[in-house]
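Feature request, filed as a ticket because there's no other form

It would be nice if the structure record came with a short human-readable summary line next to the tokens. Right now we just get the raw output. Example of a typical job, pasted below so the devs can see what we mean:
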Amino acid sequence: MERLFTRTNIIVALFLLLLSAGQAQAALGKDPYTYFFNETWGDFSEELKTARAQGKKGILLFFEMDECPFCHRMKKTVLNQPDVQAYFRKHFLSFSVDIEGDVEITDFQGKVMPQKDFAFKVNRVRVTPVFAFYDLDGKRIVRYTGATSSVEEFMWLGEFVEKGLYKEMRFSKYKRQKAKAAQQAK
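Raw output as currently delivered:
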């Protein structure tokens, strides 16, 4: 009887351990380089064609660098969330650009250059992170500098672009409206 009780305790303990490991993994989220960012060969003029063919709203570029704590925070708390990943994958092609990178890319107009030149010279990125949204013609339509305060704010940014609200107002106004509505709903 005592032996059966011990086996039962061991089985229950293992089950609880596996359950808590699964919950911990869910809290950590999914790797953004696998589930948020799309694969690319670095030819953004070709990516525009792909975005059009797939019915996307545009392209999102995440300008980052290795030493950036705010980039790491975005990747570990926002870009790794399954809801964020699903929403952005549905509406945009998303790519990471290393602002210090020497890897050559082709910009939206077909010009070849290192990532760092594309970041500094073409997009004037001086601090990171920067989220730049481009329409299906390769024209930048929205730029957001810095980390968002939450998953919710980042989702609002995506909605703001996806719904075309950038044509009517600034993101700060949209964010205030969404925050007020959320507060009133409580």
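Something like this underneath would help us a lot:
The domain at 29-148 is CATH 3.40.30.10 (Glutaredoxin).
Strands lie at 58-64, 92-98, 104-106, 112-114, 130-134, 140-145.
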